[in-house]
């Protein structure tokens, strides 16, 4: 007959099915055998005691990145000239408004290009 502590310890009510290759199953069995525990207990120990380090690697063409950095510099320069114009008491004109809108449009287009190079927001990578 089980003790109360044993009943609480074995109260694993949720079942998860998992498909493994022959190699993966062999690794699981070896790990469990090393600790003299069941497969389930071994997987629980891995889940609860082992930390998993998640690393994201971004791969991009350096020429593309140099081009984007250059474009950001040009847009920044344009914005600085616009700010200087207004800070020195310059008046707002249709040409200045158009330049501001063009800078904003350029920034959004560059942002899209950077996301495309970095694999977007879904984790895909661009490789060369």
Report on the structure:
With 128 residues, the chain is mainly alpha-helical. Helix content is 63%, strand content 0%. Helix 2 (22-35) crosses helix 3 (39-49) and helix 4 packs antiparallel against helix 5.
Number of helices: 5
**How does the overall form come out from the CA principal axes?**
rod-shaped
Ranges where pLDDT stays below 50 over 5 or more residues in a row are 121-128
What's the average pLDDT? Answer: 78
Question: What is the N-to-C order of secondary-structure elements (H for helix, E for strand)?
Answer: HHHHH
Quick one: biggest sheet? none
The number of distinct β-strands equals 0
Pfam families: NikA-like
Protein name: Plasmid mobilization relaxosome protein MobC
Organism: Blautia intestinalis
Q: Key terms for this structure?
A:
128 residues; mainly alpha; single chain; rod-shaped; disordered C terminus
Gist?
With 128 residues, this protein is mostly helical. It is built from five helices and no strands.
Produce the secondary structure layout.
Elements: H1 4-9, H2 22-35, H3 39-49, H4 62-87, H5 94-117
């Amino acid at each position: 007959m089980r003790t109360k502590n044993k009943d609480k310890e074995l109260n694993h009510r949720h079942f998860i099915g998992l498909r493994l290759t022959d190699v993966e199953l062999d690794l699981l069995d070896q790990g469990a055998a090393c600790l003299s525990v069941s497969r389930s207990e071994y997987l629980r120990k891995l889940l609860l005691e082992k930390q998993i380090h998640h690393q994201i690697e971004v791969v991009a063409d350096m020429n593309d990145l140099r081009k984007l950095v250059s474009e950001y510099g040009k847009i920044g320069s344009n914005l600085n000239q616009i700010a200087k114009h207004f800070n020195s008491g310059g008046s707002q004109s249709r040409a200045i408004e158009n330049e501001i809108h063009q800078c904003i449009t350029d920034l959004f287009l560059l942002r899209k290009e950077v996301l495309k190079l970095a694999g977007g927001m879904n984790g895909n990578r661009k490789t060369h």
